[in-house]
Design brief:
heterodimer; A: 12 helices; B: eight-stranded mixed β-sheet; 13 strands
Amino acid sequence: MTGYILKRLLSAIPVLFGITVIVFLIMALIPGDPATAILGSYATPENVAKLNRDLGLDKPLVQQYFIWLGNMLQGDFGTSFALNRPVIDEVLERFNGTLVLAGTAFVLCSVLGVVAGVISAANQYGLADKAITFVVLLGISIPSFFLGMMMILFFAVNLRWFPVSGMWPIYGDRTFSVLLTHLAMPAFALAVVATGVVARLSRSAMLEVLRQDFIRTARAKGVHERGVIWRHALKAAMVSIIPVLGIQAGFVLSGAVYIEIVFQWPGVGRMLVDAILKRDILLVQGGVVFVAACYVLFNIMVDVAQSLLDPRIKT
Amino acid sequence: MTSFLTLLARNRLALAGGIVLSLVVLLALLTPVLPLADPDVTNTSNRFQPIFSDGAVLGTDHLGRDLLSRLMWGTRLSLAVGFAAAIVAATIGAGIGIVAGYYGGRIDNIIMRGVDMLMAFPYILLALAIVAALGPGLFNALIAVSAVNVPFFARNIRGITVGIAHKEFVDAARLAGLSNTRIILSEILPNVIPVIVIAMSTTIGWMILETAGLSFLGLGSQPPQADLGSMLGEARSALIANPHTSIVPGVMILIIVMSINLLGDGVRDALDPRLKSGALSRPMAATRVDRAEQPPAPTDQGLLEVKALETQFHIKDRIYRAVGGVDLSVEKGECLGIIGESGSGKSVTALSFMGLVASPPGVITGGAAYYEGEDLIGAPYKRLRDMRGRNVSYIFQDPLATLHPLYRVGDQLIEAIRAHRPIGREEGRAKAVELLNAVRIPNAEKRISDYPHEMSGGMRQRVGIAMALANDPDIIIADEPTTALDVTVQAQVLTILDDLRRSRGLAIVFITHDFGVVAQLCDRVAVMYAGRVVETGGTGDILDAPRHPYTARLMACVPELGGGKRRLEAIPGLPPVVDNLPAGCAFADRCDRAQDACRSGDIALAQTGNHAVRCLYPVAQEEIA
């Protein structure tokens, strides 16, 4: 198992490398002179030249890339112009918030999605199936930011069940239960679309598995239908559900950007949007690379989980 | 194409989605000629008018602009950008996928590496990075959304193309000297277009959502121009005081995306051949029973007595009579063989006893199966479950498919016991080892922690037998348990079954198409053809003197070791399709003894001593010799 994890980690290196190349190339697409873009068209030529030098933009592209990569490997992601602090500090601080939000949403969408999918498949064409299918369709069709806004209107403003926005109250203690009340709405709004996708896929994966011969064997043994569905069929269906959970993790992680804006949640997504609007290039680069790298590592964990579930995968 | 449209129209939800979407698209197209207020004219003295106010049906926004007009223009813009993004992504993605799949090798490798790289990004993040580089703006948002969706199309289309690129017609085109471009355009493209359509119909909703999202963040359309996303984004600051300015564009996005998704699902279902055949319906816990008539009463023959059993498959408008009135019985300690060609209904018969025929499409439409006088057909699920594995257990054909691939064999054995009585961890383990020893699996202590795929075919089948024995049943139904095994292993498995029968007094119903196996194991045989028993009697009687022409022909198909004088004779023709059985004898069309009388009326099973045959002109004793 350790060998397998190591192997997967090694195989992630070219992917991480590729990610930095892609991010770098995208940023190299910036039309015109980035320094002018940053400083504005009224900047003095001296300042533009200085900034170009500071950013290393006067060097050839390949050299620029390796300088940037080398610095990042040493933990130096550069300095944000707009915030005037090291990119890595800002990203790490904000990533905490995103992790709490996206992590909760991921757990929600995995559990709710799989359970809904299994119930739906087990009652195919029945009332529960139709109800779930409809709710799922609604869920994957509603923009998460609109859903979030409506939840604020209804649950926070009208019913006053939850605070309107933010991760922590401005005054007062930072206890776990306070966090939960702040977290409930954004995490749910973020999870809805992913839940729908997971539920759909779980349903079809279950239907696929329920036709297999080993399900008939389980029934012939006299295993209770509950056991047939929730143990035999679900375990086999998880083999195709888990990779989708991996994809949804990426969706939740990056979709958090909308929710962070709607709920004023202090996270990486909101930071990135601000940075884009302020053309704070290094902060964008650093944030994107960092989040993408975390996602790659998470996917390795997904692969490991998959190999633990399925003994047929060679470890 | 017409069948596709009818299928689509039959799906009411998809139809509704299609209608709603068409209406929205129509309105969007008509927007410029409709008598609407100018969407961009501000009137700050008239801001935040509520819905249904004078002169503004949907009210006005924070700058006093007419919301209805802005909604219509915004819808137009959102739809245009969403469709454009979908078309761009589909075209580029499909192009990349076809090239990678068609040329294969190095080109494929390099392209797919790149695609995998792009897919390693959480994709909204990638879109953000692209917008960050190009700068905010609707056109840039379109580029970003298309770009992040290209890998999805590329990967999908590549998979399909790889499958097509090695088909005969492509080879033929290549041999005919067509250029690669010609082949791609004339042979490959027409075949991948349905896939592109499915992929587009399922992703276009996403793309509209994603562009709306970027606009919502202020990275898409720039003021004063507004699509639905930026309308929502601008309205957000007034959410609490004037919610209608948010609700109007939000609901519109929901309507558009939902109707697209409904229609997309309909398109996918109509184009996916697996759904057409109903193959994706889930078999229920027990076969559906729908008996029109009261089943015949038991006559106390044997432990298990089957009377006039009828099982059908209802697929669409067709009815396949897989089992058309079968009578069987088996005593304690006896082995009954059921023999017949594939599709003769022997497995379905055996699965019907315990309600294990996949349903839908299976339905038991008549007859009874009495176990110690209790009718199993139509017994409540609870009772049936309780008896499965405890009184009657099954051994199936292919143990690789019939054992759960993700559970250790020991756990599967323990579970079989636990389904009927509580058993502790240690005791369960001991019992599992004992069971494996009983079927002569060497090194049973170790083997219980193997997974099925780590065992050989013969070992797996022994596990299957051990599992059937777990609760000391009275009857074992073995459905071609040796068919997937090679001859030496087959002999070992048969010996194990025979020993068990003698030592435990088990009744065995053994389903096979192999007369050799019947001779070795069975006391009595029932020969099945087209869902009915055509001949039954003692094994010796039937093997020595088959009376039904079908039995005789079937036996003539079996090569004899060391014989060599006799010609091997295949039976001409094919068994009849059971959704359209001929009147009279189902075998008549393949039989060289058939007379006119064979083709009308029901032919009864005529009993002489222990030997019964369903034939008007049975083979006489002398003819065989």
